[in-house]
Structure formats: C-alpha cells, structure tokens
Amino acid sequence: MKLIAGALSAVMLLLPVAVVAQTVKPHDIEDFIREDKFRDIAVSPKGTYIAVTVPAEDKTVLLLLKPGDSNPPTRINVAGKKTHIVDVIWVSDDRLIYSVALKDQLDEKPSYTGELFAINADGSKSKQLAGYIRDDAMIVGRAGGQAAKETVFMSIINTLPDDDENVIASVYRNGSDYTTVERVNVYSGTRLRLSQAPVTNANFITDNTGFARFVVGARKDQFSKLYHRKSEDDKWELINDEGVSGKVVSPIGFSADNSVAYLVSQEKTGPDVVLEYDVATGTSKVVARDALADPTGRINAVGKRHIIGVYYAGSTPRYEYFAPDSADAKAHRALQKAFPGQVIVARSEATAKKEVLIYAYGDREPGGYYAMNLETRKVSPVMYTADWLDPQRLGTMRDMVFEARDGRKIPVLLTLPPGSNGKNLPLVVHPHGGPYAGDEWSYNVDVQVLAAHGYAVLQVNFRGSTGYGREHEFAGYKQWGLKMQDDLTDATRWAIAQGVADKDRICIFGASYGGYASLMGVAKEPALYKCAVGQVGVYDLGRFKSEDSLRSDNLRRYHEEVMNDGELSPLSPNHIADRIKVPVFLSSGHEDARVPIEHSEMMETALKKAGVPVETLYFKTEGHGIYKLEHRREFYAKLLMFLQKNIGGRAPLVVAPAK
Of the CATH numbers 3.40.50.1820, 3.40.50.10420, 3.40.50.1110, 3.30.470.20, which one belongs to the domain with range 395-540+569-647? Predict the structure, then answer.
C-alpha cells in the first residue's frame, strides 16, 4: 500500500503543474479549468508495476513505473494530434494492452478508434494488435493458417484468469455486419475466431472465465435481441426479442461460480430492474429495483472480478446487494464507513501483496483512488484527481423530485452555493444535451463554476431523459419545444415556489440540445427568465433534421422516430426570435460538425433583427464543445460576466496563466 502511494506521488512530481498567481476564496475559474492530475490508474496483478494515464496538452499519455525504482517512468505516446490512451488493462504482471480514442469535431469527448496496442512494462516489445487508422492494411496472423491482410475495429471483452498471453476481444471487420469473438495473443497479434454473432451490431458478454455466453444486438427492425449459449458446442439461443417482449435486456455480469447471470431489463413502465438469470434452467427473478431510477452501475466484490450488486448514485448513495448477508457484501458495506456520502467502486482485483484499488467520487469530490489492504482492512489515500479543490468550498448537490403540470414525476438535481442558506438565490436552470441523455449526481464542472460564483443550479431530467426507465425517455419523443420544454418551465416555477430562486434573478443556460431548450425557454416564457445562454445549440430544427439525414440512413430513421412531425419552424428559436425579450449569449465553434456554427450565426442574425441584445463568442479551433484551456477560461469568464450583469452573482476573477 505504501509502495503504491509513494510511487504515484513520485510520478506527480514529474507532471506539469498549472500555477495560479494568487490564492482566492471561494474557488475561481482557474481552479476548475486546470487539467486533472491523472485520468486512470491500473496496478499489475502482482503489484510490481503501475500504469497511469495523464493529460498532456491535447493528448492523454501513459506512464509506466515500478514502485521502489529510482528510474523515471516509461512514457508511452500515440502519434497524432488529439489522441488519447484509454482502457489500460494488465494481461500479466509485465505486459499490458491499451486502446486509443480520438477527439474529433462531432463530440465533446474522445471516441474509440478501434486500435489496440500491447507493450511490456519496461516499454519494450510494443505491438499494434488491431486498427485501421495508423495501418491501412494490417498483416494479422491467423491461428492455424497463413497471415492475412485486413483492417478491423477491436475492443477487449475480458482477460483470461490463468492465461498471461491471450485476451478475449470483440472484432468488427470492414464490410461485415457481423461481429466475431476471438482469442488474441498479445505478443504476436495472432487471433483465433471463437464464434460469430447471430445478429448484427452485436456485443458479446463473457462470464468470469472469459467464455462468451451472451450476445446482444439488433437487425434491420432495430429491435434489441439477446442470445445465450450454455457451451461452445451449443448454438446461440434467442432468449429475448424486444419486438415481442417490449423490453430491452442486457447482461451486466456473473456470480462467482458463473451459475447465475445478472441482466438489466428495461421495463415497459417504471425504471430498469435487475434480473437473476439461472443459466442452466433459463428461469429468472427480480433481485434489484428502485422506485424511480435505473441502476447507476455495478458493484464488484472487493478484490475480485465478479458482480455482487448494483448502486444508485444520489445525495445518499444506495447499494443493493444480491446476497446482502454474504461475505462479499459485508466487506463492501464496511468500506462505506470510510467514504460517507460518496460512491465507492472497487477498481482492481487483489494483487499478490493483498492490495486493491478503490475509487470514490461524489458531488464535491471529482474522484480519488485509495489503496486497501485486504488483511488489515486499512484504507490509505493514493491520489486525487484534483486535490487543489476544497470540498467545503464547493456546492452541495441534492437529488429531488417534483410533479409536472400533468402529474408526471420529474427528477431534478439542485446545487446550492457553498455557505448559502438556500433561499432567494439567483438561479441558473441548466438543461442537459442529448436530449435523450441525462444528468447524474456527481461532480460537474459547469455546475460547480456557477455555484462558486453564488448561483443555485437546477438540472432537470425532463421527460426524454435517460436514467429513469424507457417510458420516461419515450415520453419525450416528438416533444421538442413542447412537453419537454414545459417540464423545464414547471421545474423553474417549482424552484421559485420552494423559496430557492429569486423570481427576478433566473437565467437558463445549456449546450447542444440544452442550448436549444434555453432559447426556446425565453421564447415561450419571456417573463420567466431574465437571460439565456446557448452553447453549440440547435436553433433550426428543420435544418438540423436535414443535416443529420444526409449524414446517414441511421440518423434519418432516428429523427423520424424522435423528432416532431410537421412544420418545425414554430418550434425553432431562430424563427421565433421576435418572442424573445431578454439578453442572449451565444457560443459556438467553427469546427463543430455535429451542430454547425451556422445555427448560432442564424440565431444571432434573427435576434439582432428582432432588436434583442445578443453577445457572442465563437472559436475558430473548437468543435462540439470547448477543449482548449485558454478557450475554457475565456468562455467561463464571459459567461459569468454575462450572468452577473443580468441576474447578479459574483464577478469572475480571471487569473493570467503562469508563463
């Protein structure tokens, strides 16, 4: 435990540190835009080596070190701009594999490229196992045959407990709709095909031994289908068809002895439930269910690879164990006492030194790693993602529920400024993007920036949001600017009625779909909000629908299913700008391929024509989100000055970066 903590502390001394010219209380912009100290940590099976991914300008690199070794760590970097090393997995005590993600103009976060690399802990014997970006025609050895040239997209499904040379991977080949599951040698790259999915767009799920027992996918009808097999000699058996059952069922793990699989079932009504599925008999029963929310994630047994329950994140995190009286459940429950009010996740199997890594996070904790000794049960801090942030100077997020005008229960997250009494505050309503996504209880940079400057922040999981059952999501289909927007209006009025918000100091601010909802909010309710902020927003629904339909048939079909029918101009902010009576701030990027900057430019023109005060901030080198440090600093500064001018709050302190 001491070796792990000491080694990682040594690594941090080698990393660049952002220097703030002065200390300020409460936290200011510079504290929130600093790069995290690290992205992820992985310890080798015997605890001999540690892998740490760390940010490096527009990339994520990998550092490999040996505790107790005075030599500097080995640094691994993938060629090219905006490349990120992700999903580092130790295959043995001296060899690991990693995937690559690339930040493009479509998404705010990097996306997987399908490339897979293997390397020894000392930096030797690097091998590209799969990919189609860096090698257009890879030569891949085929077990039992001659080498073949092919390009593939590969992702690791599982490691093999007693095999230091091979892993189980899902392989997608260009020109084929059917994924295969294969055993891959991490030294030679040789692959052995084990099975082909019986359905397109498929994902395999293995048991704890690495045997692929389930596959889930969809055919042209777009209905999810789940298949199971008992052995490698058995054929795939269809056990759930969404088109018949009306449910989507997906495996999330197996019991320690692999006799039971745990499946998440998206029910016709209500939130998702967890089923215990007997793989021998095919019978199932419900073992976890919440009254409102879907499970947030799985609970692994401490120091082991099998699942023992699920958790529900929130102001008071809740853990539901499949066998509450088991030794594994008791061990995990004991950990909760060390992390009150946080979500705890076991992130590694036990090393030969009987140590295990624990990850903990919360609304005021961006995340931290801890080492636990399984023999003494002592827990010691290893490293915090952002140890310069003081939880006492961050806003507290509470999960709550209110009833919309039609009686639907709408979940919300309300964050209060640190030190406030929670009454009569300037409020920022912060609708999420998607819109078929959701806000979760966790540390959120946008929210904490606003809270630190004196604003209460209201996040609304309006109908259409995920995380609260598929019926809640489907209730938002074809409701852009209609019932989804009404939920935001009702949430704002609820905050006023609760005494939290000063009715004369409310602004609405969101990005992507959230930008659309913000501008629609002030168009539909001109007396409710005092200002609006739209970041990379969609402002012309007809244009957006046409743009996506031209990109692919899948997007065209998707919009036919979820987007409103009929004439879309009355539901497009740039066509009803004359209804807006309050100041607006727009921000976008010239490289945005998801929602082109023309949406913001058209919105700006329409607002000016209507005589609405409008401020803009456009970045030449940003896409669908703000990526560069200097641009994040500029955006938050302008956002906070805009808010202060219109609804009060604390002025930002913009500290010049150290040279």
Answer: 3.40.50.1820
